[in-house]
Specification:
This protein is α+β, with helices and mostly antiparallel strands and 124 residues long. 32% of the residues lie in helices and 33% in strands. The protein has a four-stranded antiparallel beta sheet, with helices on one face. α3 crosses α4. It starts with a strand and ends with a strand.
Length: 124
């Protein structure tokens, strides 16, 4: 029997140089990521051992590296790189959902943020 659950990492702020416009490449900006990692949590719920689950501290390190390793023009490409890094680095994760927000986009409007949400199941 499996106990599928989700590990949540919310409002991870990372400074990077992504974006279509030259000022975004030059100045950089803050991005906010939310991650949902679907995995079987039965073993760790029973054992209460970090060895039996996905270590979210390590996930944060992998996500940060993937997000800052290169410059992306589009949020979609940056989110995909993050999702692939999580799936590649953490085999117990069956599906990862990445919400990526740009809190201060170069748009002449009053808004909280712009962003995207992508979901990648293992094997796609």
């Amino acid at each position: 029997m499996s106990e599928t659950g989700s590990i949540l990492i919310e409002k991870l702020d990372i400074y990077a140089y992504h974006g279509f416009f030259s000022e975004e490449e030059r100045l950089g900006q803050r991005f906010t990521l939310d991650l949902l990692l679907e995995t079987d949590l039965r073993s760790s719920a029973i054992s209460d051992s970090l060895a039996d689950t996905v270590n979210y501290g390590k996930v944060v390190a992998v996500v940060t590296d993937a997000f800052t390793a290169k410059r992306f023009n589009l949020l979609e490409a940056a989110a995909r790189a993050v999702a692939m890094a999580v799936l590649d680095g953490f085999p117990p994760v069956n599906r990862v959902e990445v919400t990526l927000r740009k809190p201060a986009p170069p748009i002449h409007a009053t808004l909280a943020s712009v962003g995207i949400k992508l979901s990648y199941p293992r094997g796609d």
